[in-house]
Structures are given as structure tokens and as C-alpha cells.
Amino acid sequence: MRNLIITPNMAQNRERMNQYAEEAVIVEEASKNVKHFIEANTEEATLNHLQHECITPVFSKDNELTINHAAFIETIQEAASSFFNGETIDTPEIRVSHVIKGRIPEAIRKPANQLLESDKTIYYERAAFSIDIPTIYETVGGNKLNLSIVGVRAYNQMNLYSKKSPELFRLAIGFKNQVCCNMCIFTNGYKEDLRVSNTSELYRSALELFNNYNPAKHLHLMQSLGNTSMSEHQFCQILGKMRLYQCLPSGYQKSLPRMLLTDTQINSVAKAYINDENFSSFGNDLNMWKFYNLLTGANKSSYIDSFLDRSLNATEMTVGINAALHGDERYQWFID
């Protein structure tokens, strides 16, 4: 298969993507007020709120500023606008969680019920955002997929009690299923351990990720999933093995491919198999494209700090089980 790398002027190169992707059709977009790329315990936030109403944490030993959530989002926006020049770049959808509350020095002795809004300080321990590029899209399994950039920041995974050191970010580029807002992440579209000291380094790393990502290969992979189906018996077998996986002795578990979904999320996969309006297949064979979306849909209940790792793992699990159904041995344990 010929490799295809996204170039900055994607509008001129989209024809090449069609070699591996079926002809795009317009699918009515779901209401953004109802469906989000991540749910869990998150709430919506605006960039303006993060810029003007939230404080910036510091490294306590030298009082050096961290790169705050707003700066992270703005930097990736700028990198996307530069790399995808000529394309439409949507406003980021931002989700935050684990609010850290404080108060200004003048309000230290005030009772809580007498605090004014101007007395309070807040920031969010965790933030995630999604930036859609709706002019780069294809259709897979009857679902419209928009190219999307997703970033994750979690202060709880850093040591803020030390001196300033390179800061941890997670950044991914992939496709978002517009029917359900499920994120589809591929290996060369994800940086799980992106450590930078300033926004200039962050900008360069984002451009590098965009350049290395191969959208045609990703689309071809997702389209091929629709060519394989499993029976309901095989699906139940896989769910049972996924539940069993959590209880295996650590040594035995390490000999198997990793599986990051929780028991609660596996239960969600089972319920969606019966009830999901887009991907249910109760009583029928289940194709691997639908199975993939059952996994990515369940992943939307992950906390922000584990969301992208589990998104990638959903791809690993689906591709591995798909290969096992064709005789490959690596994921055979899940279907035996």
C-alpha cells in the first residue's frame, strides 16, 4: 500500500486519500449539545474561562509557572492552523474535571457562605480538548468521520512540588465519528509521553505529530474492519475473556496483549451491543467496525488522564481480535 502523509495544504491532496477510502457522503451531524468526545465526570469549559478566570499552577520549589491549559490549547490551535492552512479549523470543544478551589489572601478569614466570586480562585487538575477539521472527512461503514486533534493535560501526573522540569502532555490526531463523537486513534497519530519545557517546543512537537500521521493508512485500516464479522457466541466469548483478564495473576496477564477497559466499561459494551442506536447487533453477527465503536463508545466514560491511552488500546484490541478471527495467534486467547 502506498503511504500517504498529510501535507499542510490538505485541500490539494485529498484525492489521494480516496485510494483507500470510499467516496465521502454527507451524514447529518449529531447535536453537539448532547454528544461529547468524552463524558465521565467532565464539564464543559470555554477558552475564555480558562484564560481569564483560572489561576496558573506553579512548581513550588522555584515558583516557576507551568504551561496552563489555555496556553496548551492555544498552541495546538496555532499549530493546526499553520499545518492545515486552507482548511476549516473548528473552535475547540473543551472538557475539564477535578476543580481545585482556593481564595485570595484578603478572603482567607471569610466564612465560605460570605465569599464573593472575586474572592475565589480555581483551576482544573485535568483538561481535554478536541479540535475538529470538518473539511477533511471520509465515510467508513456509513459513518462520517472528521479529522480531529485531541489533547489531554493532567496535573496529577506531574510533580508540582519540585523544581520546574519538562511537562507532560498527551496529543493525538485521528478521526472522530460524527454519529457518536467516538474518537478513533491510530498508533502513528498519538504521542503519549510528550514532554516539553515551553510552548515553542510544544508547537514543534505538534507539527511533527501531524506530519508523521498517515491518514490513508488509518482510514484503510478502519474500512477493512467492516469486512470481518463475529457471531454472537464469539462476541460473548470475547466479553467473558475481557472480564476474566482483570482477575488474572499478574505474570499470566503480562504474557497477553494489554487490555485497558474496566469492568464497568465492558458492561457498557454489552449493553450497547443490545441497545445502541447506531451499532447494536443483538441476535445478528457483529462486524468489527461496529465492535470497534462499541469499545470507543465505552471509553468515553474514562477519566481525562486515561482517555487517550484507552482510545489507542481500543484500536489495538479491535485490530488484534480481527486478526485472531483470521487465524493470527497473538490475540487468540480472547476468542478461544
How would you characterize the overall build of this protein?
By secondary structure, the chain is an alpha+beta fold. It folds into two domains: 213 residues, no CATH class; 109 residues, no CATH class. The chain is 35% helix and 23% strand. The protein contains ten helices and eleven strands. The strands form three sheets. Strands 1, 4, 5, 6, 7, 8 and 9 form a seven-stranded antiparallel sheet that branches. Strands 2-3 form a two-stranded antiparallel ribbon. Strand 5 and strand 6 form a beta hairpin. Helix 6 runs antiparallel to helix 8 and helix 8 packs across helix 9. The longest helix has 22 residues.
N-to-C SSE series?
HEHEEHEEEEEEHHEHHHEHH
First-residue to last-residue Cα separation:
31 Å
Helix count, per DSSP? 10
User: What class would the helix/strand composition place it in?
Assistant: alpha+beta
Key traits:
single chain; 336 residues; alpha+beta; two-stranded antiparallel sheet; 10 helices; 35% helix; globular
Task: Give a brief outline of the structure.
By secondary structure, this protein is of the alpha+beta class.
Which secondary structure elements does this structure contain, and how are they paired or packed?
Blueprint: H1 14-17, E1 43-45, H2 47-52, E2 58-59, E3 64-65, H3 69-83, E4 93-103, E5 120-140, E6 143-154, E7 167-177, E8 182-184, E9 190-196, H4 199-212, H5 215-225, E10 229-230, H6 232-245, H7 250-254, H8 263-275, E11 286-287, H9 288-299, H10 304-325
Antiparallel strand pairs: 1-4, 2-3, 4-5, 5-6, 6-7, 7-8, 7-9, 10-11
